[in-house]
Amino acid sequence: xxxxxxxxxxxxxxxxxxxxxxxxxxxxxxxxxxxxxxxxxxxxxxxxxxxxxxxxxxxxxxxxxxxxxxxxxxxxxxxxxxxxxxxxxxxxxxxxxxxxxxxxxxxxxxxxxxxxxxxxxxxxxxxxxxxxxxxxxxxxxxxxxxxxxxxxxxxxxxxxxxxxxxxxxxxxxxxxxxxxxxxxxxxxxxxxxxxxxxxxxxxxxxxxxxxxxxxxxxxxxxxxxxxxxxxxxxxxxxxxxxxxxxxxxxxxxxxxxxxxxxxxxxxxxxxxxxxxxxxxxxxxxxxxxxxxxxxxxxxxxxxxxxxxxxxxxxxxxxxxxxxxxxxxxxxxxxxxxxxxxxxxxxxxxxxxxxxxxxxxxxxxxxxxxxxxxxx
Length: 375
Fold this sequence. Notes:
- The protein is mainly alpha-helical.
- It contains 16 helices and 9 strands.
- It has a domain at 260-324.
- Strands 5-9-8 form a 3-stranded antiparallel β-sheet. A two-stranded parallel ribbon has the order 1-4. A two-stranded antiparallel ribbon has the order 2-3.
């Protein structure tokens, strides 16, 4: 990721940001803290702003003013700080991870979301080739269909991570460059759209809206899918649906391809080291997997294209294995985790089943044939 990109800082349709009010309590203490933590007091941050202004043709005074309102958030730094204590003794568990996202409350919320947005989901599949269950799975995992879009001011979160990223991170330079690029995109989009960048709320990493898009993803993949002249991932479920689908198309989604297949292992031996070496990157044909001792099920032997053996640990119990396709890998471009990808897939499947069941329940029943009269 480039440091101050000539950022493809584009958002052709205005990107709507939410407004919020702050409590007046302890205003004196907060004002004093704001002065101490303000990036308007940081020479390196202001130099960065001047460079961005020159690169992107933004008014330097406006940019300094906005960045001057950004506050360093220690909570954001803590959330991004790598653990330095003893390693956790509890092994990672797919079963536990899955239970956090696939539960009756989230499935029912997903069913309502699907039913209320069926036309937009269908149009997104026709336009981008991404089926409803994947879009519904993403938005459900990310924000429970808009219930939890984050309470951090995006400007504060991005500035904190751009200029005060935890110094003990093993990839510090890379992470600083990434977040400086995201901050540059966020401010440039606000300037272009004539919007107030201090009003947007999001995650502690600066992700926004129902689909939790970072600013660069919003600029590249945000879609005005409802045709109202702006991209609004906070208040327009239709825009969020189109944007998530467009994101997947931009990251290699293959229409009509399965996400994953079941797997069985050759009882005479399986070369697990070779199969797991590429991690989640599809690297083997079905025939190569078979030769290495992993047998693709559910039609996987007929799959055209590379596959990956995906291992999901279950604590002290036996791992769960699936065979991932290019579309499984595409889901990990949203969040680089095989556990995340499986949770998105499984939630989407559970919601699809609930929608189907509700559809069958509401279908009109055929009238019963009258019983024949006895002779």
